[in-house]
Amino acid sequence: MGRLIYSMFTSLDGYAADASGSSDWGGALDPRLHDFIAEQSRPVGTYLYGRRMYETMSFWETALDEPDAPPFVRTYAEVWQAADKVVYSTTLAEPTTARTRLERAFDPGAVRAWVDGLDHDVTVDGPTLAAHALRAGIVDEVQPYVAPVAVGGGLRFWPDDLALDLELREQRAFGNGTLWLRYAVRR
Q1: By residue range, what is the domain housing residue 162?
Q2: pTM for the full model?
Q3: How many domains does the chain have?
């Protein structure tokens, strides 16, 4: 049975992107941190994206074509390309990456039943799509990468109207001050 995991960078004050839409402050370009993210992503066989997150992540489709790409970029690109992607969008005409299918509506019950039948993990990526899964109670784990910055506003990591009971299962600190936290969602 697969797990449905919500994992991404967040500022210390709870934003996945700042007011300008940037998340460059997240620290993903730190080689040790990026290698850790790649290792955490290996058991993920499918990424669930909304349109905006998919467009951001589609960079990884061609990252291996860059001759000067550092090893940590190449490693994550290989992991990302090996996984399936599902994009939930009413506006995207068609996917631009391999191993990608387009769905017009996010059905939490269908997603939960599908994940339960898998032998690999699935991530729900991006706070907008994750909010639907979190509100529906279908997320098994939340794994934030907490960056040591406060950005003061932007796109929130958590939906405003959500209460969750979480159990800390694992944590790791990185030299740049980022913390990775792994929480199980208590039901």
Answers
A1: 4-185
A2: 0.95
A3: 1
